[in-house]
Amino acid sequence: MKFYHFSEMPYPYVPPEAEEAHGGLKYFMPNRFYDPVRGHDLYQRYLDEYELADGLGFNLMVNEHHQSAATLHVSATLSAASVISRTRHGRVLILGTPLPHRANPVRVAEEIAYLDNISGGRIDCGFVRGVQGETYPSNQNPARNMEMFFEAHDLIKEAWLQRDIFSWEGEHYQYRYVSIWPRPYQQPMPPIWVSGTTARLVDWTARHGYTLCNLLGTYDDVANTFRLYRRSAMSEGFPEPGPESFAYLSLCHVADTEAKAMEIGKKLMFYLKAGRMRLNAAVPPGYSSPEAAVAALRGTLGAIRKHSFEQLVEEGIALVGTPDQVTAKITELYERTGVGNLILMNQAGEMTSNEVRDSVLLFSREVMPRVAHLGHDWKEDDTTWRTDTDTAPVQPVLASAVS
Amino acid sequence: MPVATRHPKLVFFHDVDVVERSAESLGGLARTMSVEVPGYPGFEGHAQDADGRWEDWDSAGDLALHFRDEVLAAPEPVHVMGAGFGGWVALELALLAPRSLRSLVLVAPYGVKLFGRMEPDFQDLLLLDAREQVEMGWADPRRCRGIRMPGFPESPDDAQHSHAFAERATLARYGWKPFMHSRRLTRWFHTIDTPTLVVSGSRDRMLREGHSALLASRMPNAVHVEIPDAGHYPYLEQPERFQEAVLEFYARLEETPR
Description:
The complex is a heterodimer.
Chain A lengths: L1 E6 L8 H6 L14 H20 L3 E4 L13 H11 L5 E7 L6 H14 L4 E6 L6 H4 L6 H17 L4 E4 L4 E5 L13 E4 L3 H10 L2 E5 L3 H17 L10 E9 L3 H8 L13 H4 L7 H9 L10 H7 L2 E4 L1 H15 L3 E7 L5 H19 L32
Parallel strand pairs in A: 1-2, 1-11, 2-3, 3-4, 4-7, 7-8, 8-9, 9-10, 9-11
Antiparallel strand pairs in A: 5-6
Helix pairs in contact in A: 2-14, 3-4, 4-6, 7-8, 13-14
Chain B lengths: L8 E5 L15 H4 L1 E3 L23 H13 L5 E6 L1 H12 L4 E7 L22 H8 L20 H18 L7 H6 L7 E6 L9 H7 L4 E6 L6 H4 L1 H17 L3
Parallel strand pairs in B: 1-2, 1-3, 3-4, 4-5, 5-6
Helix pairs in contact in B: 2-3
């Protein structure tokens, strides 16, 4: 199993009354509440933590969000460039570039290729649809989101694979002359990761052989999503997908005692604050199926935001506890889902840098060595998720934590 | 064989956040005119229209092209009316086939951007909660009726909510960017010389104040009438005053040589 350190780089200094007045920290929060001096310090601190994690054996993940105090990553590729310049060993997972929210896919292809060259091939390249609420800052049509995602992907892939100038006259993107410099360091292209739970997207990811990431799902939902992936991949003619094809993002904090881990780990709940988002921001028109939109109205979409911290720990969505407890949960996660990549949100909200450092140090010393072997010999493991024994039907899965 | 009628034909393009999509929503007008209310592809009951090609359409201009033949097929020019989003469809149709229209009644239409680039012309009906839209769309929100938006009216029926979400998705296809208007229509609407009545409610806050009056002033053959104590849906909120204004317009039209 591989481990990725991740922080959303939050800005935790917005006054509560401003947060209340604007219905949360995201998308519609005026930037007068941002202090550039404090922001500079935060960026340095978060990058220091990435540097430490790299030295401890973690891989590294960055993402991007927009117009949000919850995240100061404004461009996943810019963040990756910053992290690459501070680190030497870990792979840098960009999860991801929200393709439909970017106006220029060729620019994305160039930037990823640049990062891959600069880092000597350390890039894992994630593509995402972009979170629902960011449809408003990006102003890209939510009813076209999925089709734009697919077309942008197709164009980027051609930009990486073609060796001569080509033209692209698509539905959403048009270029008459494309031949990017540089081309990727990893040939023919970096590994591609996709996050999502929508059946169509999971099926598409499987049929392309890309790594599928589930964000903060219940283990049952994760197992169900991966089940769909395995069946789609094999019907496409791929061999049975192993753990390297799957990733899971969880909240994480370890400490010497359970009480201390719970006390500090509770700060991770910052990430799940829902705010009072308008219905249309939670499910922009056409972004999801009408059925998923009704689920949002009924409160079942993004349901884990309503779980208590204790419940999240119990479910293993928050890997919080002593090294023994977290080791046991990660083992359970692997046994129930067959996941091979674990992304750990080791920082959120007002969690201090020392608290983050203590946790990642302890994790690297006392958890990582005990779970790193998981999935290495997956064909020999006694698990429930192998395709020859798993005959459960695929159930529809709703996004666990919509933003 | 349809029964021959001497009533003049009126094609009414309905707004998209109302469920009242029949001739009855125009009250007394339906007694003196033969009212047709076309259904929009992608809206309830019309998901399969145009063989599903509407999924690629991106403007009310596509709807106007879709309805153009229907209007042109009439033996003589027809009266066209459009409310809100339907007003945008009606404007696009007038631009396409001006000689096929006898008159144009526009009720607080979307479709044309008249104000500056940092001055939104229209409230964001694709973001606002139903509660906010009712507050802004009605002079007296207690009179609100016939409205349908995602989550509104509250209903135990998931199927009805599902229809509302599906229709918002279709509206997003037509009006997301540029928001609820067309740059091309904005460049050309001043050439529409069809006799036109622009009607708006005095308390319409879905459009920037003065939008309807300014629109009328920039069309060569248009007048503007404001209905007092009405919001964005004057034909629903003040039906008698609305019908009176429209009938007066039609009466003057009859006095004018074609």
